[in-house]
Amino acid sequence: MLDVSHPYFDNSLSWLSYTHRLLLEARDENVPLAERLRSLGRFAKEKDDFVNEKIPLLSAMSLASKDTLEKLNLFPETLLEHIRETLANQCDEFNYVLKQEILPALRENGVHLYFQQPLPAIQQDFLRSYFLKEVFRYIQPLFLTGRKPFKSFFSDPSLFQLIVRLKKENAMENTGTDSDEFMFASVNIPLEHTTRFVELPEQGAGKHIAFLEDVIRCNLDLVFAGFKVYESFCLRFERPSAPELDDELIPLYASRVARQLEKQNFVVPQIVYCEKGMPDQMKHFLSERFDIPMDGWIAPGDYLHYSSFTTFPALGKRLEYPLQKQFSLVEPTTNIFEALQGGDQLLHLPYHSHWPIVKFFNDAAIDPFVKEIHVSLYKISGQSFLVNSLISAARNGKKVLAFVELNPKLSDLESPVWAKKMKDAGIKVVFSTPGLKVHAKIALIKRKVKKGWERYAYLGTGGFYRLTANESVDHVLLTSQTEICNELELLFAYLATGQEAKKYKYLPFNTLHVSQFNMYRRLIEMIDREIQHSKMGKKAVIVIKINQLQDKQIIDKLYHAARVGVSVTLVVNNCLCLIPDLPTISENITALRIVDRYHENSRIFYFLNDGLEDIFLSSGDWTHRNFHRRIDVAFPVTGAAFKKQLKQVIGNYINDNQKAVRLDVYQNNVPVVAGSTEQKIRAQEANYKLVERQELRPAFTSR
């Protein structure tokens, strides 16, 4: 039963509503079979992210005082129980869809994924050769014997291990029995160097694919020469980061809960995953060796790391989405800055090619007139094209400032390496701090020509690490607008100080909406303006496309707007804490979610404004964290042509009746179905055709 006096849906349960939508995509027989399998991979990744983020947070909150929890209207123990039940049900559904629906369908279509099956003897020569050439040099076997402590050995979450039970062969020969004490060893599964799925030579018709760990199992006699291997099971350790209380709670309660946890010596629990069927003898040994409680083992299924399904090999035209041409706004030989002097460019990715973005930074690196480059780098890797461009620019004498938010999955290993390369090249690198985290996707190029300084800006809705993958829907504005460039230069000047935003509240941002400065206030003002227009009898409309909407003050404003007649439509990909369709509260609010071929990552804010129509693109969601703990930027789209494009994009999302679901009061994913006389509209397909109609220069293709 919903508590109408507290009309906010729990963000954890809303996240699980999204993971269930991914399962529905995997069950949809209208989706190409290979993409259904990849949808299971997306589910597995989201589920792992959820467990690593939310379970530690709620475990910590359960130790807070009763008084604090009552004031927060939070009951973590009850919520954890509900979450575990929901996760168990979703994992059961995942296993059913995989084993009863997708794997049989793959076999019917000539694709055999060896799943808990012995690999065929006819493939032994290939398996041996593949292991020796591609895998063996990365293998690091370790005997888990002696008194040496191993508690820190599996602390790296990227490690994926095979635990092996074995015995010396000469011991068996001496005794003639198997009664001697067994030994245990671990073997790493080097996913960072090799592919998870190994394509085997064709046997007649069809494609045959094996899991990497099964290939390693077939070759353990090479790894442990002189030993007899009895059995092996995969193991993965996860130690989630400490819960970010400041990101979830207002400062008063965040500090209060932190003190209470400190008094109780709270430690984030380690998560241990193992393959189903691991014997108790092995678990007991590992529990003692690594100080794991016996009730701390999680066996999610027959294999681990199901998120690898997102990278499953291509299976041919019949089982994949058809290739899509991408369209380029810039010819390869054109100087990007000369092109921008003729007008701004608005890219709709992945339908547009990312080529103009690559050129934007590559041309800046070699253009003799470019003197300065300022950029924010959010969770990229050292393999990014952008890192290489910046290093090249610095070596060519450009002044480069990079504000870096490290990727926590790489920060212990890879990130310091490429960050040092950047510093060695002469780049000024400013790392994020707890009080200053930059989520904005922005860059500024300063170019000195005869007539003076020219400035060019990059503003995007998604991170650079996504742009070249052709997996996400995002928008990018390349512009030389004076107002935007002026304020971006001001923002980068502030970021270079490394100080918290509260010390610089006076900075005059007017065109850009910058979180911790003016974004929150401006959004409230624009919602209030629609409320006033509705009260005056004018048409009032708000459309928000976003990943997460959690901020309670914003939600209250939207409730108020809906009550006075403002039409409010929300297209929310992930977490939505607003509850639609509540009588007298949110009957005028429609909440949609779209899951399709590409991950929906863009943020678009539309306000009718009595016909003037304000449209903003943004890198940030509407959460306490994004408003008050990060630097995000929302930027206006002002050109008539660009506004027309984005209105069409928004309209396609609102009218989608093929891939959209409507979220009800309990966040059930209710399919939006086209009527018998209605035109079928699929937003991503319609938005691709929108770009196709506007552009005449096909550039590349994407899967």
TrEMBL record:
Pfam families assigned: PP_kinase, PP_kinase_C, PP_kinase_C_1, PP_kinase_N
Domain of life the protein comes from: Bacteria
InterPro entries with a match to the protein in the record: PP_kinase, PP_kinase_C_1, PP_kinase_middle, PP_kinase_middle_dom_sf, PPK_C_dom2, PPK_N_dom, PPK_N_dom_sf
Domain Polyphosphate kinase C-terminal: 335-499, 512-684
Post-translational modification (record): An intermediate of this reaction is the autophosphorylated ppk in which a phosphate is covalently linked to a histidine residue through a N-P bond.
Keyword presence, Electron transport: no
EC number: 2.7.4.1
Reaction equations catalysed: [phosphate](n) + ATP = [phosphate](n+1) + ADP
EC category name: transferase
Keywords (A to Z) from UniProt: ATP-binding, Kinase, Nucleotide-binding, Phosphoprotein, Transferase
Residue ranges annotated for the Polyphosphate kinase N-terminal domain, each copy included: 8-113
GO molecular function, one term: kinase activity
Keyword Translocase: no
Boundaries of every Polyphosphate kinase middle domain copy: 123-311
Known role: Catalyzes the reversible transfer of the terminal phosphate of ATP to form a long-chain polyphosphate (polyP).
NCBIfam families registered for this protein in UniProt: poly_P_kin (TIGR03705)
Assigned protein family: Belongs to the polyphosphate kinase 1 (PPK1) family.
Protein known as: Polyphosphate kinase
Source organism of the structure: Ravibacter arvi
